[in-house]
Amino acid sequence: MTDIRGFIFDLDGVITDTAELHYQSWKVVADAEGLPFTREDNEQLRGVSRRESLERLLKDRPMDEAKKLDIMTRKNDIYREKLKTITPDDLLPGVRTFIDQARARGIKIGLGSASRNAREVLGSLGVTALFDALGDGHSVVNTKPAPDLFVWVAGRLDLNPAQVIVFEDAEAGVDAAKAGGFKSVGIGHANVSHADFVLELGLKDITLQRLLDIFKPKGA
Ligand code: B16
Ligand code: MG
Q: What atom in ligand 1 is closest to the CA of residue 10?
């Protein structure tokens, strides 16, 4: 095992909770299109791209590309309006302290979010400057559960995956971390039990030192 030199954080569900805003936005367009969509359905959209979200929402219902683009644009316009309400108070508990402590220890910090709005959200949260590398929905072609986004961020941090812990709230995100050879911490209790370690209550539930101890190489 290698010493941990970097952390890559997912955004929605790890640093802040935009899932409800995604839900409300998809709900408006789903209702307008007569597509059934519930909060439970929304859980299946965690961590997956906007396009994959629409595909899951449609299930097997056929739709031409122009219509899909129209729906994705409408959803995003609504979502971006809602993002205007985000402030530093929307950081999830424990996040700021955890990242500050990690930086003080020389651990490099990356973002690995599927969202194309991630930079704006980080800015509204007032935490952009804490990140050494930002990977978002514009960074790579293959989205989670492909490992590409996390590998791209690790490259920017000049680290190997084995030196990095990925923090993820989504099944697809933990799958991506594992596929890339990263260590993983699952946040929450929705389908992340295959992570190396699970924090049901989020980053407020652990100190930096304890987490590093958990991932310390055996015998070190
Ligand atoms: P956008 P994450 C993901 O964020 C959300 O969990 C997911 O619900 C959303 O579809 C995806 O971002 C794309 O977002 O429409 O803003 O590009 O968890 O990867 O930070
Ligand atoms: Mg997420």
A: 20
Distance 220 CA to ligand 1 centre (A): 38
What's the pLDDT tens digit per position in 144-158? 999 999 999 999 999
pTM reported for the whole predicted model:
0.95
pLDDT score for 188: 93
Alpha-carbon span 5 to 129, nearest angstrom: 18
With cut-offs at 50, 70 and 90, classify the pLDDT of residue 2.
low
Phi then psi for 104, rounded to 5 degrees?
-65, -25
Q: Domain 19-83: which topology?
A: DNA polymerase; domain 1 (1.10.150)
Q: How far is the CA of 107 from the centre of ligand 1 (A)?
A: 25
145: nearest Cα among 189, 114, 187: 114
Output the CA 115–ligand 2 centroid distance in Å: 9
What is the tens place of the pLDDT at every residue in 32-78? 999 999 999 999 999 999 999 999 999 989 999 999 999 999 999 99
Tell me the catalytic residues. Answer: 10, 12
CB atoms near residue 107 (< 10 Å): 21
Name which residue sits closest to atom 13 of ligand 1, judged by CA: 115
Query: Looking at the chain, which residues constitute the CATH 1.10.150.240 domain(s)?
Result: 19-83
pLDDT of residue 218: 76
CATH superfamily membership of 6-16+91-214: HAD superfamily/HAD-like (3.40.50.1000)
Q: Which of 10, 12, 77 to mutate to test the pocket of ligand 1 (most atoms within 8 A of CB)?
A: 12
Contacts of 123 (CB under 8 A, 6+ apart): none
